[in-house]
Write a structure and sequence with these properties.
The protein is of the alpha+beta class and 362 residues long. 17% of the residues lie in helices and 47% in strands.
Length: 362
């Protein structure tokens, strides 16, 4: 029993010295938010987690900027036609789908060469979501109340379906379900990606915009701009299971499925709400200037926040949650191991003293 207590005390002491007083872990907002400037303003972001490349549309300069996600440095730009806004990437084929809103074109770009391989005429494209498993892209067009389906094998429109004022679109690659928010009808349309048929329409909060699905839990999250809430849908039942209050005017939402953590951009409040996907509770608020569009790299847990026309790109590296993630389990074991070793050494020192004391008595 004494040995166990000794191990526990030594472990706590080592852990305290190595973790609780580590300045890197007790980070302030300024430590976790990096900003990059672009004179013409940033647009929407797509990320390839495998290469850590970040692709951002620039509506005013008619380009797509490529940023090295490891160094946070711009590496190049791709020139496109006018008004690029929505963007998505097939991480398996390395093809970008860029919505050129005012030009009514969907541009398909090979990220390996930087070449435009196809331009598809498509009325007023806005948001883009890509299913890398099926090689399909889904593009919303709010002015025509349509969602277009593009087959990446053919680089052609193969289907479409009607949604009133479609805005946000997301794909669950595990279930092959597509989710489209309808701002004017306060609802989310659930589409079966196998045949692009409508499964159901779910009522949510006021003016839903952003939507994301966690493929691991099959939960779907929707931001309601005029409610200041996030609706949680159980994707297996297509039922609303929770509503989470966040800050003023939540726009977009992303999830890190590996940590089951959700991030919400609150534009008017200049903040990101951090939600624990296990409890559906807001566990933190991170100050960020004018966050609107959001994207996340789940491998680095970097969140990229932009606002159309705003020259500031905010890169949020949520290091506090990183340092307590499962990836650091080995570190914790190492710390405990160090405590055990220290306890064993202390045990033998005590035993040696006892032996010496016993010898003196004789």
């Amino acid at each position: 029993m004494k040995l166990f207590l000794l191990i526990l005390i030594c472990s706590i002491l080592v852990y305290s010295g190595g973790v609780f007083f580590d300045n890197d872990i007790l980070a302030t907002p300024s430590d976790i938010v990096t900003t990059l400037e672009h004179d013409d303003g940033w647009g929407v972001t797509a990320i390839d987690p495998e290469t850590s490349k970040v692709y951002i549309t620039n509506f005013k300069s008619n380009t797509v900027t490529i940023i090295d996600g490891d160094t946070n440095q711009q590496v190049s730009e791709i020139k496109v036609s006018s008004s690029p806004y929505g963007i998505g990437i097939n991480t398996e084929t390395k093809m970008l789908f860029v919505a050129l809103e005012r030009a009514s074109i969907l541009s398909i770009i090979d990220t390996k060469s930087g070449d435009i391989v196809k331009e598809i005429e498509l009325a007023d494209p806005y948001d883009v979501a890509v299913n890398s498993k099926t090689n399909k892209a889904y593009v919303t067009s709010d002015k025509t109340n349509t969602v277009f389906v593009i087959d990446g094998n053919q680089n052609a429109i193969v289907s479409s379906f009607t949604v009133d004022d479609p805005c946000g679109v997301a794909v669950n690659e595990v279930t092959n379900m597509v989710y489209v928010t309808s701002e004017s009808t306060d609802s989310v349309h659930v589409i079966d990606g196998t045949d692009d048929s409508l499964i159901t329409i779910i009522n949510v909060g006021k003016s839903p915009r952003g939507v994301v699905a966690n493929p691991f839990t099959n939960n779907v999250y929707i931001t309601n701009q005029l409610d200041g809430t996030v609706t949680v849908i159980d994707g297996s039942k297509n039922e609303v299971v929770d509503s989470i209050s966040v800050e003023n005017t939540p726009r977009r939402i992303v999830v890190n499925p590996e940590t089951n953590t959700i991030y919400v951009s609150n534009q008017i409040s200049n903040s990101l709400s951090v939600i624990d996907g296990e409890t559906n509770e807001v566990i933190d608020t991170i100050p960020v200037e004018q966050p609107f569009e959001l994207m996340i790299n789940p491998k680095t847990n970097k969140v990229y926040a932009t606002y159309y026309g705003n020259p500031t790109l905010s890169i949020v590296h949520d290091v506090i949650r990183d340092d307590y993630s499962s990836e650091n389990f080995e570190t914790i074991i190492g710390i405990l191991g160090a405590g055990v070793i220290a306890a064993i050494i202390a045990f033998f020192v005590v035993q040696k003293k006892k032996l010496k004391s016993n010898n003196l008595e004789f």
